[in-house]
Design brief:
The complex is a heterodimer of chains A (270) and B (444). By secondary structure, chain A is of the alpha+beta class. Chain A has helices at 35-56, 64-71, 81-96, 135-149, 235-247, 250-257, and strands at 3-8, 13-21, 24-31, 77-78, 111-114, 119-122, 154-159, 163-167, 176-182, 185-195, 198-204, 226-232, 264-269. Chain A folds into three domains: 1-58 and 134-160; 64-122, no CATH class; 169-270, no CATH class. Chain A is built from six helices and 13 strands. An eight-stranded antiparallel sheet of chain A has the order 1-2-3-7-8-11-12-13, with helices on one face. Chain B is globular, with a radius of gyration of 24 Å. Chain B has 444 residues and is α/β, with parallel strands linked by helices. Chain B is built from 14 helices and 16 strands. Chain A binds chain B through residues 8, 10-11, 13, 15, 17, 19-20, 23-25, 27-29, 31, 156, 158, 160-162, 164, 170-173, 177-181, 183, 189, 192-193, 200, 202-206, 208-209, 227, 229, and chain B through 324-325, 328-331, 333-334, 336-338, 340-354, 359. Strand 9 (176-182) of chain A pairs parallel with strand 14 of chain B, so a sheet runs across the interface.
Chain lengths: 270, 444
Amino acid sequence: MIKEAVYYESTRMFHGSLMNIMGTRFGLLLINKNRIESYEVWNNVVFELRRLDLLFNRFDINSETSKINCEAKHGFMQTSREMMNVLKSCKDYHKRTLGLFDITLDDISNVLLNEKNCSVAFTKDNVSLDFGGYAKGYALLKIQDIMNNALVEHSFIDFGNSSICGMGHHPYGSAWKVGVKNPYLPNVILDEIELSDNFLSISGNSPSYTGHIKHPGSQKLVESRKVISIISENPLDAEVLSTSFMIANRKEQELIKENFKIQNIGQYNI
Amino acid sequence: MSKIKPKEIDSSLRKFIKDLGYISGGAAILATTPWLQSFTTDAAKEIKNEKAKIGFIGTGSRGTYNIQAVSAIRHAEIVGLCDIYPPNLKAASAIVPNAKTYTDYRKLLESKDIDGVIISTPLYMHAPITLDAMAAGKHVYCEKAMALTMDECKSVYEAYQKTDKVVYFCMQRMFDEKYIKGMQMIHSGTIGDIVGERCHWFRNHDWRRPVPSPELERQINWRLYWDYSAGLMTELASHQLEVCSWAMQMVPETVIGTGDIVHWKDGREVYDSVNLVYSYSNGVKINYESLISNRFNGMEDQILGSKGTMNLASGVYYLDDDSIGQKSGIEQLIGQIGNRLYASVPAAAPSWRPETKTSFVPHKIIKGDFQVNDGLSMIGALKDGTDEILSAFCQGCITGERGENIVEEAYTTTMLCLLGNQSIAEQKKVYFPDEYKIPYMKFS
């Protein structure tokens, strides 16, 4: 994991970046914090991201997700309180998205929770948890707490291009302006979005990465050339919805919208 | 008269050089590839009614390949064939029935009808025959490497200084379009500063040929014995080390290596596995590896630059700027804020994933289809520059014009190969000896 941090004295700006965290890269820009404060925030953010990577990374045999994926098919097993809350939250999102958000990519009803004992079990063998459409939003919620505690007013986060957070505003503007790129034509901008104290999540296919989103009901891969953007004050809502809207038909989209407080939804057919 | 119908096997390269000259300016191309100066379409026209009379010494597998290539050159005629192994001589004679046959190369050299000789013998005979041929007043083309020993290399080089004859060694990559264009791109800065060079040659073959009776073992399987061959270094690495020096425009100062017989433990003496590191004075290194018991990695001549990578054998290059998602939106934002600008950053897109080797966009060095040598053949690969260098030599036999730098490149490369073997044998770092340095070489 490559970690870099630079403080620009002349502009009172801090830039931190992490390569290969949660399967992607993470970048943070802090404005108007001094050097010591900036590094303190950054260190807390890095610590939290690494902790969450170990919680959610299904490719790491030592992660809690891996342990559940290996053992829960044999019967109830103990989980951390945090994991239990995450699983409850995922079940809740499953309901609110009409079943389109599903961390098992199949049928989350096969995941049984015993809240009282803080334990989980799978009802059959080939069930596994994949937090790919959830973890980054969850991490941004946690990072938001760190920023609030440190009284950060102006910041910009780019989490793997697809999850963007703009808090406060650009030093020379009233918000943070972000262009939504056409993944098939990298020099073409589909839309320009202004962020200020909110989150943007993007979901879509790209030439080198098509068919990574699957409809949990039909099990068909979503291979259409489209991009979905969701703006919300809640990064987890934005994350969950951008994936769900890739799968949902127009009618489902309308119904799902009623269950969320969304600031803007964009759909770009390309 | 050969049974093979002549055709213009060299016209593609001649046209390529002409076009390259137009694009880059004639002076630029000649500065980096002076041996191509006379390899023009105009020169081909001037000699179209003339024929170089060629004698072949060594008519084994590589010799036969060369016979077939020369038979297809309009400005050449094969008039003599020589080999000490009767089956090979007979087979060659079937291709060129009118050529006179010899079993002693000295007799062939006495022939007044022969302008130049093409030597395709085992390595240990390269220097003796080359020296005798020059002494006999013949133009000489010899397969690589130059010689079996450093002293022989020196003798050949010194004899070349004293003769006015045309002398070529088969450094065919110097006549391969993708190498010529690739080098021009390297030297014009396409991949930035050269920071490393990696070459490898992998095969899975025992390097043996069938032997009709045991007493012919060393004559036929000469590559496997130190008295006749310098093993993988001269047979394979010589081509690749030449490419490295050509790219760097320098010669490595030191080499350290290791070699073993890892798999083919059949009584052979030469290594079937070698790993060497050659170092230039500026710290850039050549990593060389050859193994003939696994062919997975094939063959590649790779030049690593600060801005990109050139895979010359494959004819493909990659630029760092082409890596997918190489700059984050934040990096662009930092630039904006530093310049007090407020604008959009094109940050948002479907999830970025870590870069892998395949995320770099491959570019062809030359347009259209071209031959890629997978390195598996023991004889040679089609369209690897061999036909063209043979044509250039035959042209030289007519015009008397020498191919600039070719002997020097062969000398330098062979020395590097032999120093590599010395390092392996002595198990220590070896420095390029002063007494073998020639004015052509640049070490810093």
